[in-house]
Write a structure and sequence with these properties.
The chain is an alpha+beta fold and 417 residues long. The chain is built from seven helices and 22 strands. It has helices spanning 2-22, 37-50, 108-112, 114-126, 206-220, 296-306, 393-396; strands spanning 57-61, 68-81, 84-91, 135-138, 141-146, 152-154, 158-159, 166-169, 174-178, 182-185, 189-193, 198-200, 203-205, 227-231, 235-238, 248-254, 257-262, 281-282, 285-289, 314-338, 358-370, 373-382. Strands 1, 2, 3, 5, 8, 10, 11, 14, 16, 17, 20, 21 and 22 form a 13-stranded mixed sheet that branches. It is elongated. Residues 257-280 are annotated as: Disordered. This is Tunicamycin induced 1. Residues 1-23 form the signal peptide.
Length: 417
């Protein structure tokens, strides 16, 4: 009896196991991952900006897994000539594109999760923001520090000046700014015309003449003429030198305001005797060399913006000047549209080809990441691949059989065995 009971239990297990193996589980469709809000806003801005309002239009792509992230410096200028304000936007080429998981690429569902929210906040705080390359500034001028709670002041040794808000550079004082996110002009500047070009080593430079005129005007006034806003710098230091004469003297003007002056006094201005000019630095940015040939394109752009006024006596205003380190995202998307009857002329289309029913175009968008959003700046149409068509020999010969083709005997080659 015991053996018979054991056989019944074994048979029951076999029946249950076979039933489970034969039963087909219901194919549950995997839910699509939610689209991040930054990507959906970017898609809506592109569709609205390009004017895609046609019926039957489909926009696809915007896959965050294929998004490329890079850093570059953006330059923005607003030039007033007469009564016209001309905006100029320049962008450096991105040297390197990487696949980076930015916090804006996370979906809201991930952010709502308690465990993932803590990781998201930690990663968002640890993301390293791009910064400008170190640059040198020379007085007389004033610097307004924004978000400068932890600015390191080295003259060349570290000095505890508290939370810096304003730094006044006297004539001859030079500091190196590191870790700044952006540098912008606080007050408009009035620059002289015509664009007198200073000759240096056989090259004409209009920027050198502007810099010399601007520095001369700053020295003639009691108050600093030039005022800049520096966002988020990590340190302000004197120029590296072994000479103790290059140390800067610090004077406290008010809480959060200091004045830096050079122990050697003011630096003599550059002469204007053509090729003998020893100073080619573009004041107040001593990091730029006025004789550099890479600035020639910017000089030509400035001359084209000013037009005829570039050679006339007068002035023009620089209302806005801003250089900022930005994070850019490059993504691809496609636009698909159904073709209506008679919309396309098929007269040059081969008859043997199947006429397409949809028109598809591929684009690439370059967007700036700012404030948790991706703002489109440039959209270009791209060709994802080069289609190679292969045609059958019968089509090329007019679909003629071999029996009707003319027999051609090529000349014999006597050196062939």
């Amino acid at each position: 009896m015991a053996a018979r009971a054991r056989w019944r239990i074994l048979a029951l297990f076999l029946v249950i196991g076979s039933a489970r193996g034969l039963a087909k589980p219901e194919a549950a469709a995997a839910p699509k991952p939610p689209v991040p809000k930054a990507i959906s806003d970017l898609r809506d801005a592109i569709v609205k900006g390009l004017g895609f309002q046609a019926e039957g239009l489909k926009v696809s792509g915007f896959d965050v897994r294929d998004a490329l992230v890079g850093h570059a410096v953006s330059y923005e200028f607003d030039i007033e000539v007469g009564r016209k304000v001309l905006p100029v936007r320049l962008l450096e080429d991105v040297n390197r594109w990487d696949f980076v998981d930015l916090p804006i690429f996370r979906s809201q569902a991930d952010a709502d999760d308690t465990a993932l929210a803590e990781i998201w906040r930690a990663e968002k705080g640890s993301v390293v923001e791009p910064t400008l390359p170190p640059f040198q500034l020379a007085g007389p001028m004033e610097l307004w520090i924004q978000d400068g709670d932890d600015v390191r002041l080295a003259l060349p040794h570290d000095v505890d000046a508290g939370t810096l808000k304003k730094v006044v550079l006297s004539d001859g004082a030079v500091v190196t700014v590191k870790g700044a996110r952006a540098a912008s002009l606080r007050l408009p500047l009035e620059l002289p015309l015509p664009l007198n070009r200073t000759t240096y080593k056989g090259r004409l430079s209009s920027l050198l003449s502007i810099a010399q005129a601007l520095r001369g005007a700053a020295r003639s006034n009691q108050k600093p003429l030039l005022s800049l806003r520096i966002e988020g710098p990590t340190s302000l230091s004197s120029t590296p030198s072994m000479s103790p004469k290059d140390k800067l003297k610090l004077k406290r003007l008010a809480p959060g305001q200091v004045q830096l002056s050079s122990r050697t006094g003011a630096v003599p201005a550059a002469t204007e005797d053509g090729d003998e000019s020893p100073n080619t630095e573009l004041w107040p940015l001593l990091s730029l060399n006025g004789s550099d040939g890479s600035l020639q394109g910017f000089e030509e752009l400035l001359a084209s913006v000013l037009g005829k006024k570039a050679g006339e006596k007068g002035t023009f205003k620089l209302l806005k000047a801003r250089a900022s380190a930005q994070t850019y995202v490059k993504m691809a998307f496609a636009v698909e549209k159904k073709l209506a009857e008679g919309e396309v002329n098929w007269s040059n289309f081969p008859e043997w080809k199947t006429k397409p029913k949809k028109l598809r175009a591929h684009y690439e968008v370059l967007a700036r990441v700012e404030g948790g959003q991706a703002i489109p700046e440039r959209i270009a149409q791209v060709q994802p691949f080069q289609a190679d068509e292969a045609t059958a020999e019968s089509v090329l010969t007019g679909n003629v059989t071999r029996s009707k083709m003319e027999i051609i005997h090529p000349p014999p080659v006597y050196f062939t065995l």
